[in-house]
Amino acid sequence: MAAKTLTVDGRQISAENHTTILQAATDAGIKIPTLCHLDGVYDVGACRLCLVEVKGTTKLLSACTTRVYEGMEVTTNSERLQKYRRMTLELLFAERNHTCAVCVANGHCELQALACELGMDHVRYDYCSPKWGVDATHPFLGMDHNRCILCTRCVRTCWHIEGAGTKNVAGRGTKSYIINDLNEPWGESETCTSCAKCVLSCPTGALFHKGATVGEMERDRSKLAFIVNAREKKQWVV
Amino acid sequence: MGRLKLATVWFGGCAGCHMSFLDLDEFLIEVAGQIDLVYSPIVDCKEYPEGVDVALLEGAICNEDNLELLHKIRARTKVLVSFGDCAVTGNVPAIRNQLGPDNTTNVLQCAYIDNAQENRRLPTHDGIVPALLARVVPVHEVVPVEHYLPGCPPPADRIKAVLTQILAGKPPHLEGAQLKFG
Amino acid sequence: MTLLDLEQIKDKEIAGRKKIVLRCCLAAGCTSSDSKNVKARLDQAVVAAGLQDQVEVRGVGCMKLCCDGPLVQVDPANTLYIKVTADSTPSIIAALSGGKSDLPQGDPQAAFFTKQLSIVLANSGVIDPERIEDYIAADGYLALHHALTEMEPRGVVEAVVQSGLRGRGGAGFPTGLKWSTVAKSPGAKKYIICNADEGDPGAFMDRSVLESDPHAVLEGMAVAAYAVGADQGFIYVRAEYPLAISRLQIAIKQAKRIGLLGMGVFESPFNFNIDLRIGAGAFVCGEETALMASVEGKRGTPRPRPPFPAERGLWDCPTLINNVETFANIPAIMRRGAEWFASIGTEKSKGTKVFALAGKIKNTGLIEVPMGTPLRTIVEEMGGGAPGGGAIKAVQTGGPSGGCIPAQHLDTPVDYESLTKLGSIMGSGGMIVMDETTNMVDVARYFLEFCMDESCGKCVPCRTGTVQMHHFLEKILAKKATARDLTHLEELCDMVRNTSLCGLGQNAPNPVQSTLRFFRHEYDALLQPELHSGGNGVAQPQPLAGAK
After folding, report:
1. Do C433 and C361 contact (CB within 8 A), yes or no?
2. Cα torsion at C258, C263, C265, C269 (round to 10°)?
3. Under a CB-based contact definition with an 8 Å cutoff, are residues C528 and C480 in contact?
4. Most buried among A33, C21, C100, C395, using CB within 10 Å?
5. B106-144 burial, b if ≥16 CB within 10 A, otherwise e?
């Protein structure tokens, strides 16, 4: 069967076979919050914001990695899910040093925007205030680990859109961090093509163009989707 | 009902939130008819009074003076509002926490020696710099807080929205863009 | 290799046996207390006494009573020497010819041994794990022959289904169901993986099986490969187990050499190779999807399921992953039949389970008991209770993701369902006993710290939720927390359990939740009163001394 019908938040919608719950809901105009999802690269289900309830299972499923099936009944915004999402955001804000007021991405940040959207007016956990550095060795790009939420969008973009394979994850647990090549300074990377697609992909101000100051870090993410679409479907539509 | 006793307090912050408060312009006149401003950086009052209804607290809790005053305020105030990002999150003052909990001397070192242009020396006389806390913390990490008013600074209309709701006897509620940090 | 060849090896091996056998434990526990040297000195002493025609000194795998190692058992006299030193070896040999030995001895008739039922550990401590002939003499590889020559792959799967065997890695998923899913999954290439990434603190069941009877695992894997249609197997074993790795390497080489692995096993069209993959020390690589990523050479992080490995596993091919102990059960099931196996244990949990007994208990070591054996039998009768006779407070099962079962529930039968009901899990078989001196909040903190350190960092709740949970526990232990903090902690437990990507995160709250369930008073006793009425009264930040 080419199409499936399913119920999302009480609404009957149809979706193409093999699409994810997230795609199906987005197509139907139902918004599910995400952070690690990025149009154009594969999904990893890491941020857990898009978790939804599916009738028939007690487990919460990530909408970005779960495929639709006929007759599926999905709830995207129960009280419980809202509570978990808010906690997820609080955990992210407490994990590193997200000081919106002095961030290049202030006003253009998906983390900040989600906090507004989900009503996070304060963080109940103690801030971890870790000491993370800034890699400013690249001639015109920069990485501030303090603002990184480890969504790995830059890693996936680097490998699967640019094909350079520069970015990667090192370390474990909360001490994980994004590296270039085998943990070399970005400016010394031999594989980085300086395409800056990683900067386009970053949801926060962790990756930035040097010289950008507070609130200046705007991005046109449709460029990424454009490249992927052009490559996969041979359609050069802006 | 009597006039609402309002206090505004300035802890570790840049006073930008108070500047924004003054940006309320003519609304200040309107509010003045309904409240008594009993304690504020713009009021000549040395001791935080008893029986305050609402206090807007600007700034993070950075030193022992902040801490002592905050406990007094909590004991004497019905409703506390964390006013601005420093009070809500620690914000810029809390950046020094990255130097580690035992590094108060490093903070002073950083400010008075490493980054000083001249007169490089640590303040040594009592009463010049109050003892710093190990960590700069948001207000609600020390005492219970009723409401949160984020923003760096919160724009005047956001402050107005909160004050209007409080004056109308409702618990203030902000949502969407009104909750934006930074 | 034919059945005849196999029988010849067996006959020759048995015919060559000597009258007296001294079994000397050469598993990791005893070797760490010098048993290699003990074995060498026993060999010398036998020669010195001129007894080499009558006495064989055999290096064997784990003899289970690890706390009293190095162990030497004399057959057929059934004498068990404990805490043997190199210097005491001449006296052991002297005792063989009627001399009296006053060396410390264990009691082979103690409950620790007699209450055991050995299936997985049947060869452990009996055969020389580095000699395939010894394994064959114990009817090794007969099961594989039987499967290959007398059964259809479907029949093998059916037998495993009938046996009621469930995965011994922790979750207890029905093994037969898993096998049949892989068998039915379409695909020309399929893989078998043996998960030997045992990482729970205090657990050493799989290590002992690999060190003591590696061929049983290889044989189990070969049977599985035949049943599901795979021709390549991997054993993912952690680098921290060098002895297990070396014995596996020896075993694979021996099996290949005589045609029990490789091309045309038992001269049938069945091909099966096994390669080792050495883990680099990440606990999360015991999670099957992370393990597969690691085998593929990627960063070992889990991915969401479905798709399950049975449909899309290694390099997107159908893959069967079972734990060491699960595979080690297979030869016995094939040899003795599914009905025999299903007759052991409880209604829903069949067979036996191996446990590593550790903590505040007299007899630490390895035990294998029928499913459904009451915890009390294990802890009090077999384990001998707490050393010094103190009261036992709780038993922790299931490793860092498990839970603490309080003393009042010691009569619980050990099976998958009963342990889950008490908020713990069977897990892979670690069993840590705690006595009355143990601080349960500290226990929770310890295990949570383990999970926090071992989180792979991929999903938010596990990566940073555990950090905050740990922080709350530290705060409680430092007597700086209030009831409000405890509420936050409980909320986080619920959130991390329900939103984490893999089992490591989902079960990380177990130690906290299970200690809260049974020992909440210990938490309450550490809480501070609220600083301000009606508020959240979080502890005050402490000013730094001397910061003027």
Report:
1. yes
2. -150
3. yes
4. C395
5. ebbbeeeeeeeeeeeeeeeeeeebbbbbbbbbbbbbbbb
CATH class in words for C441-524: mainly alpha
> Parallel, antiparallel, or unpaired: how do β-strands C191-196 and C319-323 relate?
parallel
Residue spans per domain, chain C: 16-106, 138-342, 352-438, 441-524
- Residue C1, CA distances (Å) to C139, C265, C290 in order: 15, 8, 37
CB neighbours (10 Å) of residue B78? 12
Residue C98 has pLDDT above 90, yes or no: no
Question: Could you tell me the fold of the domain covering C352-438?
Answer: Ubiquitin-like (UB roll) (3.10.20)
- Is CATH 3.40.30.10 correct for C16-106? yes
Query: How far is residue C352's CA from residue C333's CA, in Å, rounded to a whole number?
Result: 12
pLDDT in tens, B22-61: 999 999 999 999 999 999 999 999 999 999 999 999 999 9
DSSP string across C242-298: HHHHHHHHHHHHHHHHTTSSBSSGGGSS--BEEEEEEE-S-GGGGSHHHHHHHHTTS
Helix (H) or strand (E) holding C495: helix C483-499
List, in sequence order, every residue forming a beta bridge with B9; answer none if it has no partner.
B57
Closest alpha carbon to C83 in C96, C67, C98: C67
- Please tell me which of the candidates C536, C541, C547 has its beta carbon nearest to residue B135: C541
> Which of B105, B108, B143 is the closest to C535 by Cβ?
B143
CA distance C530 to chain B (A): 10
Which of C420, C453, C460, C466 should one mutate to test binding to chain A, selecting the residue with the greatest count of A CBs within 10 A? C460
| Other CB atoms within 10 Å distance of the CB of residue C78 | 9
Question: A41 pLDDT exceeds 80?
Answer: yes
Residue for token pair 């657990």 = C203
Alpha-carbon distance C350 to C343, whole Å?
A: 7
Tell me how far CA of residue C273 lies from CA of A159, C133, C380, C491, in angstroms. 33, 20, 44, 48
Answer whether CATH 3.90.1150.10 is correct for domain B4-96+134-175. no
| pTM for the full predicted model | 0.93
The string of DSSP letters for C38-61 reads HHHHHHHHHHHTT-TTTEEEEEES
Q: Residue B57: in which H helix or E strand, if any?
A: strand B52-58
C142 and C286 Cβ atoms separated by less than 8 Å: no
Task: Return the number of other C-beta atoms located less than 10 Å from residue C384's C-beta.
Answer: 18
Answer for the pair C182, C319: CB distance below 8 angstroms, yes or no: yes
Tokens of C174: 């029905």
Secondary structure letter of residue A183 according to DSSP = T
ipTM score for this prediction: 0.95
Residue C424: pLDDT band with limits 50, 70, 90: confident
User: Is the CB of residue B21 less than 8 Å from the CB of residue B7?
Assistant: no
Burial per residue of C30-59, b for 16 or more beta-carbon CB atoms within 10 angstroms, e otherwise: bbebebbebbebbbebbeeeebeeebbbbb
Q: Which residues of B touch C543 (CB under 8 A)?
A: 63-64, 67, 131-134
3-state secondary structure C365-384: EEEEEECCCEHHHHHHHHCC
Asked if residue C524 lies in contact with residue C485, where contact means CB atoms within 8 angstroms, the answer is no
Structure-block tokens of residue C441: 């909040």
Q: Is A91 within 8 Å of C454 when comparing Cβ atoms? A: no
Tell me the C-alpha distance between C86 and C72, whole Å.
Answer: 11
Q: Quick check: B179 and A93 CB within 8 A? A: no
How far are the Cα atoms of A152, A153, A155, C290 from residue A43, in angstroms, in the given order?
10, 9, 12, 16
Q: What is the CATH number of domain C138-342?
A: 3.40.50.11540
Q: Which residue of A has its CA nearest to C484?
A: A124
List domains and CATH numbers for chain A. Answer: 3-77 (3.10.20.740), 83-233 (3.30.70.20)
